[in-house]
Amino acid sequence: MTRLSRIALAAVLAALALPSVAADLKVMTFNVRTMTGKDGPNGWEFRRDLFADTIRQMHPDVIGTQELYKQQGDDTVQRLPEYTWFGRDRYGKHTDEHMGIFYRKDSLKLVKSGDFWYSSTPDKPASMDWGNIMPRMVNWALFERLSDHKRFYLLDTHLPYRDQDEDVRTRCTRLLAEFIAKLPKGVPVIVTGDFNTVPGGESHKVITASLKDAWDTAPKREGPAETFHDFTGKATKRIDWILSSGVTAKSIETITTSKDGRYPSDHFPVQADFDL
């Protein structure tokens, strides 16, 4: 055996002797920006490739999206075949905005999933009250990581947007917190969403009573705190959050990718890496 062969063999044996270490769980929240808006040069057909490229660059394991139309979801997995997505729209169909959840098929297994609406009848599709002017909902899933069989819940949501809706948003986050409290103990929970309000308000206080805001707790942060920029690249409000319980965020980044002055959405996506 040559010296080079011995070195190569030693390297292989050393690698085999090392305990396997699972990679971080990479979680993204991404408000897609609906394809029905009058966005001119920022229309979906002009940014769908950049949208997919942004995801490819960050390579998240799972993505909670908001404002997603079925065509946008299908366009994205066509460009990123390692992903698939699921979810009903806010009317319980596939004709309007979805809280679509994407995940990497080589990384995660979907164990079960469901949804509920922010209303006094949360199991009734498209139900709304409390002052909501359109149905608002949560899409959720229990995932199992293929590398080590660890499980976690992912919940994705989009709260009302008007300034006068803070009381409604607070009721929504209370229902969200109640749902999470009923999940099996010992299984981590991660929440992604466009909450349409900034930290410090009552709805943020309600949900962070039981969940940690990754932007506030992760030891490593990159990018601006603010996420909504209206296609200008100059964000003004931090309304896109990643929250968790039972799992630790190691780092978080607001992603400001653009190309030729165009952005993939009117929100910056946010990605957190968790030590599952």
Automatic annotation (TrEMBL):
Domain of life: Bacteria
Signal peptide: 1-22
Molecular function in Gene Ontology: 3'-5'-RNA exonuclease activity; endonuclease activity
Ranges where the Endonuclease/exonuclease/phosphatase domain occurs: 28-267
Database matches in CDD domains: EEP-1 (cd09083)
The keyword Hydrolase appears for this protein: yes
Protein's UniProt name: Endonuclease/exonuclease/phosphatase family protein
Keywords tagged on the record: Endonuclease, Exonuclease, Hydrolase, Nuclease, Signal
InterPro entries membership: CCR4/nocturin_mRNA_transcr, Endo/exonu/phosph_ase_sf, Endo/exonuclease/phosphatase
